[in-house]
């Protein structure tokens, strides 16, 4: 296995440029205030009423990451998302992933092998069992292979949300569709990559064999900051899969904006099947500008942002998560900007009766605890993600959040817990009622 030398240095250099994208997106403010599309206007709302650390889930992933029985499997990563498979297993997706040995359950070599993405398979009993990668045991590679631009620049893929759906509408055969963000190495300010495309990978079941990767949307916006990538969250409801995304206005110091699309079940990999929310028609065009079509549109250029928050500096981040709770939609995010404009340390929530809004909030959720010693290194929490398959039928919700150290990348090798997801259990209830806000 390649661990040191020029190749290892190149890996580390790419890591130093790329590991912070998801964390950088935490600094993105997403506007939210467009009315809904007429669906389910009356609902009870949803909010978080309490939380506690899920030490058992955090410990299970720690056990797996520290197990040196194999040296070509996961020891740390971020971008944490999951989907329940029909046989009871859970497929977890990870973005930038470290492999290799963990020494004494604490540290890894500075030149440890890393790949741009991987998958983790958890048994129906809740035990992490194996890592999905490309390449070979001697030379592991990303599960979703990268490519190169015409001038040789690296192009990589980061997996986001997955869904299980029929291979085609009406089919009894099911497959896993994994949404991917394709990014290209860029020059400052695009040190975390230029957004290129939203893609969908298809895995067969039950063997989880990667069959194909299809481009479903390649944004052509001349303002690169307004190119939208889809897949930060995806929910299937009433025959549709609603796919949430955001642009990257933070690169230029502007607010990013959230968007939503929908696709009929069984057609997530078909670009012609996607529809994009164009607003409800109440927004007035600026002087001399043409009006915009409302409702769901086939043309992605007609997508209108959905908004969550009341100012440009407060709202959702580019890696927000959306889940269903009861009859309502619950959005969870790091609090972009916060009430005092300070650092991003807290998770807050918004709720709506439809995926297009309007979104109500924010309501306080939690301040995710850091690993022991994390504050000393300047570790930060980011990318909170709801895992509705764990406790979906009750009032509890499993929430993961990633941890990283931005100002001292070497710290994540000295202490592997500083670049691993951790877990909370959230108690949820209706937003409307005695003592409810938002």
Brief sketch in words of this structure:
This is DUF4185 domain-containing protein. It comes from Streptomyces cacaoi. By secondary structure, the chain is mainly beta.
Task: Give an overview in words.
- The chain has about 450 residues and is mainly β.
- It has one domain (about 5-285, about 290-430): Tachylectin-2, Chain A, CATH 2.115.10.20.
- Helices cover about 10% and strands about 35% of the residues.
- The chain contains five helices and 28 strands.
- It has helices spanning about 5-20, 20-25, 55-65, 375, 410-415; strands at about 30, 45-55, 75, 80-85, 90-95, 95-100, 115, 120, 130, 135, 140, 145-150, 155-165, 175-185, 195-205, 210-215, 230-235, 240-245, 255-265, 275, 295, 320-325, 330-335, 345-350, 360-365, 380-385, 395-405, 420-430.
- The strands form seven sheets. Strands 1, 17, 18, 19, 20 and 21 form a six-stranded mixed β-sheet that branches.
- Strand 22 (about 320-325) and strand 23 form a beta hairpin.
- The longest helix is centred in the first third of the chain and has 14 residues, at about 5-20.
- The model is unreliable at about 1-40, about 285-290 and about 435-438 (pLDDT under 50).
- This is DUF4185 domain-containing protein.
């Amino acid at each position: 296995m390649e661990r040191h030398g020029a190749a290892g240095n190149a890996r580390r250099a790419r890591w130093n440029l790329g590991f912070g994208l998801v964390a950088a997106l935490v600094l993105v403010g997403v506007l939210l205030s467009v009315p809904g599309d007429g669906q389910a206007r009356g609902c009870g709302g949803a909010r978080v009423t309490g939380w506690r650390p899920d030490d058992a889930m955090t410990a299970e992933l720690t056990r797996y990451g520290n197990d040196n029985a194999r040296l070509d499997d996961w020891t740390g990563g971020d971008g944490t998302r999951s989907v329940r498979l029909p046989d009871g297993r859970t497929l977890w997706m990870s973005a930038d992933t470290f492999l290799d040995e963990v020494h004494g359950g604490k540290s890894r070599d500075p030149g440890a092998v890393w790949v741009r993405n991987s998958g983790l398979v958890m048994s129906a009993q809740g035990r992490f069992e194996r890592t999905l990668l490309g390449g070979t045991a001697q030379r592991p590679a990303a599960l979703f292979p990268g490519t190169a631009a015409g001038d040789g620049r690296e192009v990589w893929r980061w997996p986001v949300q997955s869904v299980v759906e029929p291979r085609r509408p009406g089919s009894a055969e099911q497959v896993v569709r994994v949404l991917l963000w394709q990014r290209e190495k860029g020059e400052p300010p695009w040190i975390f990559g230029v957004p290129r495309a939203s893609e969908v990978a298809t895995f067969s079941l039950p063997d989880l064999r990667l069959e194909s990767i299809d481009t479903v949307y390649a944004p052509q916006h001349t303002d690169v900051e307004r190119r939208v990538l889809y897949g930060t969250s995806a929910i299937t409801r009433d025959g549709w899969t609603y796919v949430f995304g955001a642009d990257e206005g933070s690169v230029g110091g502007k607010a990013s904006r959230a968007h939503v699309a929908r696709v009929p079940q069984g057609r997530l990999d078909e670009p012609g099947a996607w529809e994009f929310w164009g607003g409800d028609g109440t927004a007035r065009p600026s002087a001399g500008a043409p009006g915009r079509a409302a409702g769901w549109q086939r043309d992605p250029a007609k997508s209108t942002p959905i908004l969550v928050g009341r100012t440009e500096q407060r709202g959702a981040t580019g890696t927000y998560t959306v889940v269903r709770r009861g009859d309502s939609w619950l959005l969870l995010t790091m609090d972009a900007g916060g009430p005092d404009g300070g650092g991003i340390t807290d998770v807050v929530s918004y709720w709506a009766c439809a995926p297009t809004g309007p979104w109500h909030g924010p309501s306080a959720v939690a301040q995710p605890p850091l690993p022991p010693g994390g504050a000393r290194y300047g570790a930060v929490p980011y990318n909170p993600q709801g895992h509705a398959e764990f406790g979906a039928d009750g009032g509890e919700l499993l929430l993961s959040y990633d941890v990283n150290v931005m100002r001292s990348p070497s710290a994540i090798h000295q202490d592997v817990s500083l670049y691993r997801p951790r877990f909370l259990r959230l108690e949820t209830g209706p937003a409307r009622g005695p003592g409810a806000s938002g």
